[in-house]
Specification:
three-stranded antiparallel beta sheet; 42% helix; 14 helices; 375 residues; 16 strands; alpha+beta; single chain; four-stranded antiparallel beta sheet
Length: 375
């Protein structure tokens, strides 16, 4: 969707929905990026944030918007304004196509942001109520040579590939997922940009996901659940010549079957997300993790929830060394996730974040006298 359309639509919504704001409201932690965009228009807010001087320690959205990712976050919020108008005009008819699905366990803990230095090293995340362990799998590189560890899946492309598989499986009601005839075809089906880096990243992460083993343990009250999974039961692949013509043929997994245990858990505990929001966050694995967490948490909480920095770092920044390094990364990614989750009622605070009951990220459907409506 064109950015200019987002700016115009945000301006129109500003005139209809919001009155003028005082300058002080720019520094109010309750003034979400959506409210600021709809009040000032994206164009005006871009200018204000460009001229703004950030004050360390302040949690106002304008301080985050004045940062490196601020312009992209503002434009994302403008796009959400357009999408919200279209959904209203279409009476929810567009919502089915927008739905993406993930497995709820990934809302508790995610994959690493970057590649681990040692390919045989497992990835472990431990929080107050959950533990994730991912064991890397192996791949035989040459003929009858020995199998070698290829490392734990990591980064945005691992998350995007897994979300795509889960969405296809959930929507079709089948464990079988067709990825694509080629890496270019796979990128096209996932609506991802096609370039040499994307080709390499997606191919590698699909390989890693197809052979890794995951262990989730989740506790709540006096009960707990332990799950041991491989993600993929069966995979079909073909060898294809690299675009550069160097390095020989490389295998590409074209079709796979999720394991029954993993598929059953996905169908039992899905998290509903917005496919277009996922694509806007594709450059940030941390923002994708925060968005997944918010999509799982916000629609189901009954009362205001206050979450401190220690808990946030354990879950969403386990491989960031210090809290002082984690906080600015989290603030930027939290704002980016908020920009694509229009109905989210949440704010940054000195102690961490405040979450409040919110509608789902994409309008759900309900039947009224046999007619399917959005809500």
């Amino acid at each position: 969707m064109d950015t200019a359309c987002g700016i115009v639509a945000a301006s129109q919504m500003s005139e209809l929905s919001w009155g003028p704001m005082k300058q002080d409201d720019l520094f109010d932690s309750r003034s979400s990026v959506h409210k600021l965009v709809e009040t000032y228009t994206a164009e005006e807010l871009l200018k204000k944030s460009g001229n703004h001087v950030r004050e360390p320690g302040r949690n106002a959205p304008i301080d985050v918007l004045a940062g490196r990712r601020g312009a992209k976050t503002i434009r994302s919020a403008a796009k959400r304004a357009v999408l919200a108008m279209e959904l209203d005009l279409a009476n929810g008819k567009l919502t089915d196509a927008l739905h993406a699905y993930g497995y709820a366990a990934w809302a508790h803990a995610g994959l690493p942001r970057r590649d681990l230095k040692e390919p045989s090293r497992p990835w472990v995340v431990t929080t107050d109520y959950a533990r994730l362990e991912v064991q890397p799998g192996t791949r035989r590189e040459d003929g009858d040579g020995p199998s070698e560890y290829i490392g734990v899946p990591y980064g945005s492309y691992a998350r995007l590939a897994m979300l795509h598989w889960q969405s296809v499986a959930y929507k079709t009601g089948s464990r079988e997922v067709f990825i694509g005839r080629s890496i270019s075809d796979a990128l096209k089906q996932m609506n991802l940009p096609h370039n040499s880096d994307a080709n390499s990243q997606l191919r590698e992460q699909i390989d890693r996901l197809s052979v890794c083993t995951i262990r989730f343990s989740v506790e709540g009250g006096s009960k707990g659940l332990l799950l041991n999974h491989t993600l993929v039961e069966e995979a079909e692949y073909a060898y294809q010549r690299s675009i550069s013509g160097k390095g020989g043929d490389r295998r590409f997994i074209q079709r796979l079957i999720l394991t029954k245990a993993y598929y059953d858990q996905l169908m039992k505990f899905p998290v509903t997300m917005d496919e277009t929001a996922i694509l806007e966050l594709m450059d940030s694995p941390t923002a994708l993790d925060i968005y997944t967490w918010l999509c799982w948490r916000l629609p189901y909480i009954k009362d205001e929830a206050r979450i401190g920095w220690t808990s946030l770092k354990a879950q969403l920044g386990p491989n960031i060394k210090s809290m002082s390094d984690f906080k600015p990364v989290f603030r930027v990614c939290f704002m980016a996730a908020h920009a694509v989750y229009r109905g989210a009622d949440m704010e940054l605070a000195d102690f961490g974040v405040i979450l409040r009951p919110s509608p789902p990220p994409v309008p759900q459907r309900r039947l009224v006298n046999g007619v399917s409506l959005a809500r």
